[in-house]
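Entry 14. Ran structure prediction on the chain below.
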Amino acid sequence: MWREVYHQILPGSVPGTRDLFVPVAYCRLPVRATPKALCKNILDVYGNPHPGTLDDLVRAVRDSIRDHNTTALLIDDVTRLRLHRQDDQDTLDLIRELMDLNVTLVLIGVDIPKSGLLRGAYVDARTNQYVLPDIRRGRSHNEAADTQTDRRFDLVDLDPFDYTTPIGMAAFLDHLAGIEDQLRLFRATAGMLTSGSMPEYLFRRSRGIVGLLRRLIEAGCTGAIASGEERLSLELLRSTPIRLGNLDDLDAETGEVPDIPQNVPPPTTSAKKSASRPRNTVFDDRGERPAADG
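Output, structure tokens:
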């Protein structure tokens, strides 16, 4: 619908070029965050060059978000910010500045309430939303720092999948079905991930954590292709370890590196709910609550 609305002012996709219409932009916060590094990560989404000064970088980010008609900006790994560091405080100020744009700002991280990012915030009893004061008024890059008080957020917990209730099981099976539809193994069969004891085994191996489940299935597909088996089976997955070695940009201090469960025995009739820390999403009150996908 948005593409049709903007069709008169934005051309369609052109082979070999980046899309001019980017309604949703996603980037990750660097492990050692600085305002410049965050601006560069955002500009990389659009394929735009990096100006030399911070003022020009911020201006380029504003222009890019406006020119590409971005309505939602997602910044992942926001709990990497450590507010005892000056650079991290400046980066948080920059994020607050971006709230002034006509864009829904979504901040994603592990265990946001314990990260200190909501320090000084309180829940408004009338709206059940966080009210976040500007803890560093007067030191922000924001041109209108006074307006940064009373910014409101919704905090959404995205827990690991639950395999102890019918609703939780159904949600996990739906997720597995979505993965199954995207696999391109030559000997893949209907129900390869969703039938028999496979769903419970996958839950036990991943504890319902989407990232671990994805790594296990990716590694299993690699093994299936290399061996010529071209399908996923319990026997293959039992010999497949979960490795995060190629994700060396994760920050262990912020809980981004989960405990990897060791291989488990054959499935039993029950599974305990994961006690892993929840992954949270915080977003301002200009956008709608995003659907939790696990």
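Residues 27 and 75 are 5 Å apart (CA to CA). Will compare against last week's run tomorrow.
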